[in-house]
Amino acid sequence: MNISFRFLHKWLSIALMVFMLTNAYSQAPLITNINARQTMSLNGQWEYIVDPYETGFYGYRWTERNEKDREAYWNSDKPDNKTDRKEHGYTAKNSLRVPGDWNSQAEKFLYYEGTVWYKRSFDYKKQTNGNRFFLYFGAVNYKADVYLNGKKLGSHKGGFTPFNFEIPDTLLKGKDNFLVVKVDNRRYKDEVPTINTDWWNYGGITRDVLIAEVPQQFILDYSLQLKKNTANEIEGWVKFNVPVNDKLTIEIPDLKWKKEIQVNGDMVSFSDMIAGIELWSPEKPVLYKVKIQTAGNSITDKIGFRNIEVRGFSIFLNEKPVFLRGICIHEEIPQQGRRAYSSADARQLLLQAKSLSANMVRLAHYPHNENMTRMADSLGLLVWSEIPVYWTIEFSNPEVLVKAKTQLSEMITRDRNRASIIIWSVGNETPVHEARTKFMKELLSEARRLDGSRLVSAALEVHLEKGVSVVDDPLGEFTDMVAVNEYIGWYAGLPSSIKNVQWQIKYNKPFFISETGAETLSGFHGDSLTRWSEEYQEWFYKEQVAMFKRLPPNFSGVSPWILNDFRSPRRNNPTFQRGWNNKGLLDHQGKKKKAFYVLKKYYDEIKRKTD
Ligand code: GCB
After folding, report:
1. Where residue 13 falls among pLDDT bands split at 50, 70, 90?
2. Residue 362 CB–ligand 1 contact under 6 Å
């Protein structure tokens, strides 16, 4: 290649890159506490086209359509005149509720995995000239490509975390904006989660969609919490979207505390002594109104203050050892076989957990919606929050690590001010080998880097060696607590075998049983040896509880599997499962099974001793 050709080649590649970048706006940093911003909701009925062949995206030579292609589904579906040929169209006859999964909205969608195009038209009245606009999605499962008025705003992968794109002022019209989202929920080996999971792959725009309108300079994100090992010192930081030169005020009116800081830059940190803070706890979930303000922008939140740490082999909450009376929850409303998303859904699920006398929930196996963590804050439930690094992810693939880290960072960014969250979990039941341990260690360090104030963990596996339950996963060395899932008496042996179980736990840290459970079809009765009967599950729980009582003093809690029966395509026993994993302590209709009362009794005993 001669010099001038090389130069031309380089110049052309740069031009191509610039062209690609200017044709899709990139994802903007996440705006936190979205509901406290000035927003317009785009929830409601959206029209859709089901597109299993991705015709709206690829031409017949299977090349990506260019932005102006009239046959691209992000462009107008209206014929220009009577001779015009249009082979796609949105119609009110085909519409889906947003937020919501598509699977539960029409029978044809029950098992659908593929592409659905969503379209919504809307008018927008700008509040103040010179403001900025962001299109915010609470979550879309799994991949979203977003187009406004024929322009691509950007894409996002990851089905359980929020994202936003800035809308250029010139693109947002007063009338009849044409918003299209291509949603693809197909499962791939190199995604997070990967192909194989034990839950329903609900597709769609599953959480809220909003337009947020903010000033040119605005408060993007902030952190406010109790300084470790103190009860009267608060520390935090505030981040702006751009460098500012302004006075910042942070105020907690109920504590008569106010701090003024001069900001020169895009971030400022602070700490201060505050008298009279009542600490947040499950028994008394005190939340304070917090006001953060600059000359041009202000935001309010409700924040609780508490300490969480590991001392020796116990977990301490506000200087007192705490036993986690937990329960695992999927983000699902079984009565309607759908994803949970609203505040009312969160209340239903978390009140069920409270009725079990739980003080903790493990939100499995992916970040649940913000209503859940906010509701946990106000109802007083401790939370384990997790990313869907589940079973056999491609641990040797560096791109997969980036995907997992992105989801981790989006989860932590959204929820770092929730007092309820005490544990960030980086995965569940990952198989022990070198590449995996390296991968998981990186996630643990990343979680600590993003938020050093909470515990970090992962649900590990236990293996049986000559009747002894051995916990020696090398990852246990790097987590703050050792959490394991065990199913002795269900997958391994009968409940009678639980009696003789010995534990060998390599790590002298808080020991937590992050799952245990047995399946039963609600209303099916037999003797306790009859699989699937309520009596079997009841017996299982009785033996498990007896075993918990024999565990060494570092036993710090348990979150059995699971609060409610949930949908899973892996569960195909035609009599007892029919597409449901029935390990719930409550059935599809919310009816309590016999085992519910066994666990509740155990939790009530502990509660009486510790509260
Ligand atoms: C597990 C998994 C959970 C499954 C459960 C089961 O260990 O972590 O996702 O649903 O077992 O029911 O087998």
Report:
1. very low
2. no
